[in-house]
Write a structure and sequence with these properties.
By secondary structure, this protein is mostly helical. It contains 40 helices and 4 strands. Helix content is 63%, strand content 1%.
Amino acid sequence: MDSVEWSALTHAYGPAGDTPDLLRRLASNDAEAVADAHYELVSSLAHQGSVYPATVATVPFLVRLAVSGIQRLPVLELLCVITESSDTRALPSPDAARQAVAEHGAALLPLLSDADPGTRALTAWVLAQTRDADRYIAPLAERWQVETNADVRGGLLHALHLVDPVITDVRARRLLGADEPAQVRTTAVYVLASSAGAPWDAEMAEAASAWMTAKTDDYRGQPWHVRFQHLVPVVLRTHGAEVAVSLVAPALDADRAASDEILLRGVGSAQTLVMRSRGAARLLLPSLASLVHASAEVSDAALAVLRLIGPSAAPSAAETMLAIADRPRSGQDANTNADTDTDTDTDTTTEADSALSTLFEWGVPAATDLLARDLPHRPRALEAAAKASTEQPDRFPFHAGLFTAIRSRLQALPGSTAPHPAGTPNWPSFVISLQQKNEPIHLCTVLKAWGEQAADAAPDVAAGLHLFPLAAAPTLAALGVATSEVVEALKQAMQSDAFSTRVVAAQALHTLTGDADPLLDAVTHGLTLTGSELETAAKAAAELTGHNEQLASASAEALARATTTPSKTVPDLKARVSVARALWRHGGAPEAVVDVYAEALTWADRTFRGATWAVISAIKAAAETGTAGQPLVPALIRLLDMPDYCAPSAEALRAVQPDVFDTLSGHRDLAEKLVAAISAGSFFMHQYPPVEALARLAPEAITGTVRQALQDLADRDERLVTRGMSASTISEDEQLRVLIEDVLTPGAPSRPIPAAAGR
């Protein structure tokens, strides 16, 4: 390992100088050190499935560890992720990591005969994912001939399909019969369904349903049936939603299913479908809705999928969620809502809290009443309410009952002059629990959204300023109350050792009193610092009006210090961009500012975590320079072909070179790029901006070709938002389609950019 120049290589977090130490710790006898090392290696070398130059260099050492029996299964799993990856970052060729495994994989061949079935299965998958038929088809075929474990045979068949699909298709057709184990039959269906033009027939349908009654070994820590979900999206893609749903629907029939295990398998597969297909979601709704009255575990799983689909597709789901959210807790009197004991960590509480959070996501007005009634025991719902208050303020009006409950919670914190609420159990641990759940932040977020309507809560927020200043100070500014008590609390916060606390407190004081001197002092001091503190100061300086001469001078000096060497980390880059923006806003020379933005735009090709948002911030800042930013035009044009950067680059080009890009012909060229970015994107936060940018173009820029492409996107069954797979993915997908329809409808009112999209 010492012969590798690790510091010259990069992984997900930057230079890979820590990698050899992590590999050595993986081989230690300290269980805690081993677990930490494994976590760090996976995070840095295969972060969210991405692979890097350091990943390639690590492959031979991982192979040696596996062969030596050191953390064999975890290491093989990491090699699986590496060979599966199609998300390559800064590699000389897209297959560089896979080729590295192929070159060193011969050492793994003895593991195909290992006594442990998990080792055999993982080894087969690693070798098959290299796609190196010349090296590995023969040993994989030999193992197939002698393998008896049903799970491993299923995996081997899948592996053989990767390295020799033609011969494997012929073999798969012979394996559909009932004399084969379910694992093999379902994998055979997967192989055949993956083949272009293979028709769906009754034999395949019958074989595919065998998974419901499969008995399975539990290797790799995961039951075999989970792999049935690999089949579902393939059938969806090749044979459509109706066929895919037909595979899952029998397992959602509570009257016919043999056990809750089968129902849970069906619900899991249904979730896979609804996350990918609008049509499948509609087809599965009746079956899922019928399961809300099944056992608690099945009901909870079905409700989770209904939550994803939302009330627009399942109107009756809101009534079901309301009933669950309204259930009294264990230890709560159903008539008075008073606590009869202090045991709140129950399944009932968790289920009701989850249902109530869903109602806030869906915008159901009755949710606020329920949250006000039992705020202390609804942390998930409070978080959802805080998000709704920010993203949908028109649907989250001031609520007197919830306001009273919020004040009561805030008054329980140290420093309050009010008595602690009656019935608050174990007060010190209660406070710790509040902080761990981010509850004070969510409470402040709601109050901030209500603004001056919530002014009476100012003393309660001020009392907690020392505990959660980054949330409390902006909230005090929004409440608009400048009492001596509030002003004194903000002045105390400005004495904090934490620079970010000093800045937010000074900003709030400036908003409430107009006194800019404390903020000016904090900002000018911060501009002498580095990293995130410098970025914080520069952002505050950019928003501080007046004092141009002083702030321009301090920003220029900060930029001169920061540009002595190229940026090596994302915090370095973000700080420099923020300082350059502050300098420009206070009258600095454009040349120095544009040079910083030019460097930042080269990071679009970098792989460091967080670089995307740093580049986007630089593009947006470049737009503010107007025609002074024309040297950036070639770089901005290049970024039009990158989905993440297309929209801000289009807006910037219109600003910096309007004679070319803010014309009808320029708008038409940009429209084509923006439509391509929507199609190629996968995250809502990256897909919304191109739609918004399209809406700002001249209506004549939406040519027939662009219009048809947009209509196809709005109408297609496949989800537009395909990454993230969070509770909001489906609602984001539907929202994106509505926004596209708005662009296609002349005169449609513009819609506000969601918080996540406008970061």
